Amino acid sequence: MSFVIARRAVVVAALSLVSAAVVSAPAFAHGPSRQKVVEKIEIDAPADKVWGIVGNFQDLNWHPSVASTEGTGGSDVGAKRKITLKNGGVIEESATKVDAAGKSLSYKIDNVDVKVVPVNNYSSTISVKEEGGKSVVEWKGAFYRGFMNNDPPPELSDEAAVKAVSDFYKAGLAALKAKAEGK
After folding, report:
1. Measured between alpha carbons, how far is 90 from 133 in angstroms, rounded to an integer?
2. Quick one: which of 4, 5, 79, 181 is 20 to 30 A from 105 by CA?
3. Strands, DSSP E only, in the chain?
4. What stretch of H or E contains 172?
5. Radius of gyration of the chain (CA)
6. What is the pLDDT of residue 31?
């Protein structure tokens, strides 16, 4: 009889260890969280004029960080573009949703070195809305940090990814405003 009791005690102890491991496993399995950035700007120009600039997927040369843009497929879904930055970095993107009537363009990064832009699984939408003869441009993106495991180095952290994307959007929107307003 004592053998059966001892065996039950071993089984109960083993099950307790397994269930403790299962309960605590999610705490140790946490990786990066999806980050989001939204930047907006009001531009003193009609939405059609502003859309004429941002709606051309093949031309991102209005952005001050961009040296050149080349691609294929125009501004249709599936279009590809290769952006060469002034610092020499290269970003390859594709259009994922285009609504010319609604003045909205969505795209994703297909290929980029995290040393150029510290992100993974990046997607973005830029849209233009008419508001009283002016335009409100919203540029939003969602992405993961450049380092997909736990304990990222500072240059590939959530903070670094958010800062890089936010800075890119802000610089682009300021340049877009200046171009559309003719300043």
Report:
1. 36
2. 181
3. 35-43, 66-72, 80-85, 90-99, 104-112, 119-131, 134-145
4. helix 158-180
5. 24
6. 75
